[in-house]
Amino acid sequence: MAQQKITVEIFGQQLNLKSAADPKFATDLAEFVDGQIRKVSNQINDPLKVVLLASLNIANELFEERKSQQETTAAISERADLLIEMLEKSI
């Protein structure tokens, strides 16, 4: 897919992006980031700290999701190994 220009708004700032992603996806990302920044901005007035704390919140969410995915993958692998073992014993 060819890159296209997409304009999004985050915390009152318009950003012009070039992306091959679906414009709806880029808009959804921008809305998510904007929401995280606005949530933090209700507690702090320093714009730099707001963006940094929002970034940390987003990174924390990402890391928690990755950990959950790894745990799920490990559990599925363990169950698959047990099933294979049971099938081999039944043959």
Largest sheet: 2 strands, antiparallel
Please state roughly what percent of the residues sit in beta strands, choosing from under 5%, 5-15%, 15-25%, 25-35%, 35-45% or over 45%: 15-25%
Distinct helical segment count = 2
User: Which stretches are low in confidence, meaning pLDDT under 50 for 5 or more residues running?
Assistant: none
Radius of gyration: 21 Å
The computed structural class is: alpha+beta
Order of helices and strands: EEHH
Helicity range of the residues?
Answer: 55-70%
Quick one: how many beta strands?
Answer: 2
* Count of separate structural domains: 1
N- to C-terminal distance:
50 Å
Task: Order the strands across the largest sheet as they lie in space.
Answer: 1-2
Shape designation: elongated
> Which oligomeric form is depicted?
single chain
Overall pLDDT score: 94
Fill in the keyword field for this structure:
two-stranded antiparallel ribbon; elongated; 91 residues; 2 helices; alpha+beta; single chain
